[in-house]
Amino acid sequence: MASVLTLADLDFSYGASPDFLFSNLNLSFSRGWTGIVGPNGSGKTTLSRLVCGRLDPLSGRVSGPSPATYCPQRTDFPPERVHEFLTVDCDGEAAYWRSRLKIGEDWFARWDTLSHGERKRAQLAVALWRGPAVLAADEPTNHLDRVAREPIAEALASYSGIGLLVSHDRDLLDRLCIRCLFIEPPRVRMFPGTYTEAVEQRDRENLHLRRERRRAEQNVAKVERQTARRRHVAAQSKHRNSGHGLDQTGSVQQDDILTELQLVGLNLDQAADLLDAVEDWQGDVDEFWEILDGVLGGDGRAVDPWSVLQVLGEWGYKDCGIEKIG
């Protein structure tokens, strides 16, 4: 018998919706409880029903051990085989669960008068009595107080098959789960550990992804700036070589500064970065050394700072006359 539940290349959407709830989903679940967490409407219940055969995927497959039992969140209707569970006399397993979860023999007849907590205990007792290889419990402690939650948590803890626990109950997730699946469209990610441990791993990964995305965006912006500057410099050279005069516009003036900074030892990228860096410079010499070191990757003495300051001063780019040196 297979000991792993597998979802392979699974696609699913409801009705005629053009949007897939799951697309090319690939997952595997081994023995032990897996927490299924995510915002409302993300597909947690849908995934549980797909795993248990209550829904059919549009494509892909679900394979693994059987039978699979799904315990829905609502308890409006009695579970299948509850009458048999309550009345069988020669089944020690049924008697065990009736006793452990304090199930009354008349509960089927008066189902409509039972509390939600009593119905939930009966629902889970029947499921555990049937001994499924896969058990999906959908919000088993929802709307229950602490006293009512405890026997349910203990009963679920005794299950040794492949368990899927859909829940917002963090204490229950930490108590039962050895891994957690986060459904946060469009991403579906599995992390090992309790809920608390899995959240820490997810948050670290999210932070890393945000930093990588920001770094990529900054790199793109830098390349765009450099490309624009190179175009300006190329246009300036073309006009000079052709003998045409240039208007002293701001962009052309900046191109001239870039050209002269290159003549004193900076490359184009360094010259452009320097102009960006001195936008807020107030003329302090020590601060200028730090700026130049940063632009040149820590080797600020690779060029003559007098010459760099002279270029900036001559163009009036900043109030940075060379008399401030010394």
Describe the structure.
The structure is a single chain. With 326 residues, the chain is an alpha/beta fold. 46% of the residues lie in helices and 17% in strands. The strands form two sheets. A six-stranded mixed β-sheet has the order 5-6-7-3-8-9, with helices on both faces. A three-stranded antiparallel β-sheet has the order 2-1-4, with no helix packed on it. The model is unreliable at 243-250 and 318-326 (pLDDT under 50).
Protein structure class: alpha/beta
Radius of gyration: 34 Å
- The first-to-last residue Cα distance is 84 Å
E-strand count: 9
Query: How are the strands of the largest sheet arranged?
Result: 5-6-7-3-8-9
**Poorly predicted spans:** 243-250, 318-326
| Largest sheet features | 6 strands, mixed
- The DSSP helix count reads 11
Helix content: 40-55%
Mean pLDDT: 85
Encode the helix/strand succession as letters.
EEEHEEHHHEHEHEEHHHHH
Estimated share of beta-strand residues: 15-25%
Shape: elongated
